[in-house]
Amino acid sequence: MNLDGQVQSGKTPSGEGRVRGRDLLDLPARPAASLLSGHVDLSRREPRIRAGFVGLDAEVVFDRVDVDGHDPQVLPGLADDTCDVLCVEQVLHSLPRLSVALTNWVRVVRPGGLLALTVPEGAPSNGQPAAAWRFTVQDPAPGEGGVNLFELLQVICHLVEVERVAVHRAEPRAGRADDASGSEPGTVEVVLRKRVRPLTPVQSNNSTEVQMLTRMTRSAIRARSRARPMDEFESILDSGVLDATVVDPSRLYLLYQWLLSTLRLRGDCIEVGCFRGGTAKLISETLLRRGVAADLHLFDTFTGMPERLSADEAGLKGCFADTSVDRVRCLLANNPRAHLHTGIFPDSVPPQLREGRFRFAHIDVDIEESVRDCLAYVYPRLAAGGIIVIDDYGHAECPGATRAVEDFFETRAETVIQMPLISSAVVVKAG
What we know:
431 residues, alpha/beta, seven-stranded mixed β-sheet, 23% helix
């Protein structure tokens, strides 16, 4: 298949030989073994990408994807949900950004379809180019240049289910049966099935690093409570915040602290990207309990991520859709000054708010274009000394958010302060 979408055999992905009008749910019913039988070459060492389509005879027909002169990480010529099976052999280890490649390869597979990969097994060998990766499925710390495959797959577990992970090792070469170095390098086979609907990507909250950070945060809260009461923050968390957010406690605590620093300023509060309303609830409860006379304006599509994604943001497509405006409205029902606005920001800003002034802004929209739009609207309306918290700055899976923030403040007086340890940045308005 060329990157302009034409199959080399002369057929198109939607042309003759494809099953037409097939329900998307048919693919998940097909066992991976029947779809891939005989199609994955475990002995192959040369890179190859092939797109497979289920024909009228229910067999998979493969056409090679031509990536000459193009970036195999993003497959720019293949539209979303194009093929039934994508088979990527011995390619991943040579790419610089593994998560970008995986999310884009999943992007082009139809819901319920399969992504089949082969990658080299083992720690990086001596003399291997620095740009090359080697993979392990068991070693939790594979060393520089090595990748634990199961940890890598966590990045896309909201998009796929793991059908199979298998290690295939060749028999030792003749005369070297007692010497493992005489064996050919092993091959790891990975088969992933694309979810019909993506889950909310919260897998990072279960990582060892985040769990450790959470314990440290709670320990710090307990220690601080000896000098200053922390009952308010803990009570706010218990008011419905923790049940309605995927933000870890360390970032919630920082958000709370930065909000407190603005209480003597004039202006309202704004949050763009409230999902199920957890951080909105934190802001709302803080304002209520401190007796602050300020409106809280909340913006979200409540239908998940918009389609305007950069190539390295493909893993966010369809995420955060498992919410509703009614759910958030119910959570915030005790605050008559909390206002929900539905739609794409800033088109969803009501006319009466065009000249609004803000003391505090929380931007949690993940993607580059949306972050740019938020900053362009919020920054000129922010009071001197006001705070902008950008949740996704510095997050490995939200590179566009970081780009947008860096570009926006490159020529402005403010310093972007990155917060430890997972993600988020703070900007204090100069003046």
